[in-house]
Specification:
401 residues; mainly alpha; 3-stranded antiparallel β-sheet; 70% helix; 2% strand
């Protein structure tokens, strides 16, 4: 019976199962003991990072990176920590060390190159960033469309800083061709920038026409079109475009008044134009501009009437400043209290922001087409009102009888 049992293959199968299980357990326990210290170090480093102990986290991740040379994510995380602490040179060193690894996959190499280009950009080494990004784009083997888009947008931002508008346009066109992304707003501004720099009228006309086709509702191409019409002597068409500018972007009129007033034939014609639109507007800038033009034409009565109505609609220090400059110009020189009021209102207006970015919230005194904070285009808009003040209509009208 024992001989028959030993000759049965199923017997040996079941007999060896416990031995195999025990061997696997022993080997697994041994491997666990070998990997356990590194896992503990990783979680300790992670805990330091989550606890905002950046120095300890960097030290721990550095030790781990020395033992795990092929861990791309670990090295990239270490470089990010260096960037947070402002040590861009150490972050760049980590990226360089990673790129020396010949075992990197194409996708991992691209990730490291993009991170390195970003650190070059932050360090102000735009030429190195540009060279690296162009090398990435010329590889022509980026299966990852996201990496392609990131690289292209980074190099476009470099060309914007360098004011290399033609290069930026070329990269925008390549981005549209490869990824189907159309940056119409940016392209319209690039063409406007080239138009402003051009000394050839026909070239300017073609560039502005292209900008209008790219972004028909944008304010800048329309404004540049008006200036171009004036330069070419076509003031009648320019006057019609001013009406379109007011209907779409009335906030541009006050800051562009010096150039737009001659288009309509002087102050009187511009006053007539504003009179047809001002009743429906609560903008202190427009009412202040109209009152100022009345004052320039010697009609202080109309100027004060305009300010009186505007103060009732939307009181602000801007209107108060205009009032002090027109109504009591002579009195201000005689009365030091009125002069102090005018100086105080002027100081508040000069110190306070008049424009704000709708994307990042940065405040500016002067208008710009591109935000200096987040670098977005057409995001700088005038504040709804400039320092509103409590106001009650006086029992005695501001208009002199």
């Amino acid at each position: 019976m024992l001989t028959a049992l030993l000759s049965n293959p199923h017997y040996w199968l079941f007999a060896l199962l416990p031995i195999a299980a025990a061997s696997a357990y022993i080997l697994g326990a041994r491997n666990t003991k070998q990997e356990k210290p590194q896992n503990i170090d990783y979680f300790r480093a992670l805990n330091d990072l989550l606890s905002n102990r950046t120095d300890q986290a960097i030290e721990a991740f550095t030790k781990l990176a020395e033992t795990k040379q092929d861990e791309v994510d670990l090295h990239l995380a270490l470089a990010v920590l260096f960037c947070r602490r402002g040590e861009l040179d150490r972050a760049i060193y980590v990226h360089h060390r990673l790129l020396k690894n010949s075992n990197l996959s194409i996708n991992d190499k691209t990730r490291v190159q993009l991170a390195l280009a970003d650190n070059y950009f932050r360090s102000g080494l735009f030429d190195r960033a540009e060279t690296l990004l162009l090398a990435i784009l010329e590889q022509n083997n980026l299966n990852d469309k996201e990496s392609l888009v990131i690289a292209t947008k980074k190099i476009i931002s470099i060309f914007e800083r360098e004011q290399a508008w033609e290069k930026a346009i070329l990269q925008c066109e390549k981005l549209e061709e490869s990824a189907g992304i159309v940056l119409q707003k940016q392209l319209a501004h690039y063409h406007c920038e080239l138009a402003v720099a051009s000394t050839q009228l026909t070239e300017r006309q073609a560039l502005i026409k292209k900008a209008q086709a790219l972004d028909p509702d944008a304010p800048r191409p329309l404004l540049e079109h008006i200036y171009q019409l004036v330069d070419s002597g076509n003031t009648s068409t320019a006057g019609q475009c001013i009406n379109s500018l007011y209907n779409k972007h009335s906030w541009l009129l006050p800051q562009s008044a010096d150039k737009l007033i001659p288009v309509l034939g002087g102050n009187k014609n511009f006053i007539a134009f504003l009179q047809t639109h001002i009743e429906s507007s609560t903008s202190p800038r427009l009412h202040s501009l109209l009152a100022y033009l009345y004052h320039k034409e010697g009609d202080d009565s109309k100027a004060l009437e305009t300010l009186d109505k505007a103060l009732e609609k939307a009181p602000s220090f801007l209107l108060l400043q205009t009032l002090l400059r027109t109504d009591w110009a002579n009195s201000v020189q005689k009365d030091p209290r009125l002069a102090a009021m005018l100086n105080a209102a002027s100081a508040l207006l000069n110190a306070d922001a008049k424009y704000q970015c709708s994307e990042c919230g940065v405040s500016l005194v002067k208008h710009r087409w591109r935000c200096p904070g987040c670098h977005s285009w057409d995001s700088i808009l005038p504040l709804a009102d400039i320092i509103p003040i409590p106001y009650q209509r006086p029992t005695i009208s501001l208009i002199k009888k």
